[in-house]
Amino acid sequence: QKEVEQDPGPLSVPEGAIVSLNCTYSNSAFQYFMWYRQYSRKGPELLMYTYSSGNKEDGRFTAQVDKSSKYISLFIRDSQPSDSATYLCAMRGQTGANNLFFGTGTRLTIIP
Amino acid sequence: NAGVTQTPKFQVLKTGQSMTLQCAQDMNHNSMYWYRQDPGMGLRLIYYSASEGTTDKGEVPNGYNVSRLNKREFSLRLESAAPSQTSVYFCASSEGPGKQYGYTFGSGTRLTVV
User: Fold this and answer.
1) Contact residues on chain B for A103, CB-CB shorter than 8 A
2) Is the Cβ of A43 closer than 8 Å to some Cβ of chain B?
């Protein structure tokens, strides 16, 4: 079983829709949770990060962490064609952990 | 501010050839990483350097070597390239354990081994 599971998609939604992207994980030691956005032929860029459980909002983006269910989500409101990219979740443990565990990424296309 | 710079951007090698991928960061980060990204496999850690002077194996180190030349530079070497090493390679950096939760990635090197 992989440490982090993510539906690869692809996911296509019309412009303006609410997008929900999700990951599940198996390691209860994970404390830091991140979402990266990767445009085609580019490196991943950090979009959002949260510590432990709860919600975090940044503009049109909301990250949710439910540690009891080992489930994290990224919501995109009022989706735009410029949001078309691959979204990767990532997570790591509390201390001494240099390594991030990544999901395989979900490819998202926003249709104008 | 350049962030993380990788060279070259593209490379085609013949089986058995060697090459070095270069990475440099200008953010004064302590930790640096090399990942490979393959379809359906996601990002997999090859090697990392928690701080200048140290290197450690990641998930898929076989066939690779690394050198942390100084605080800015971290190179990845393929001694005898194999078709299985065809991939996109990303270098990343972070402030270090407990200080920075996110990594900054370079734009990648697309390597094809024929």
Assistant:
1) 42
2) yes
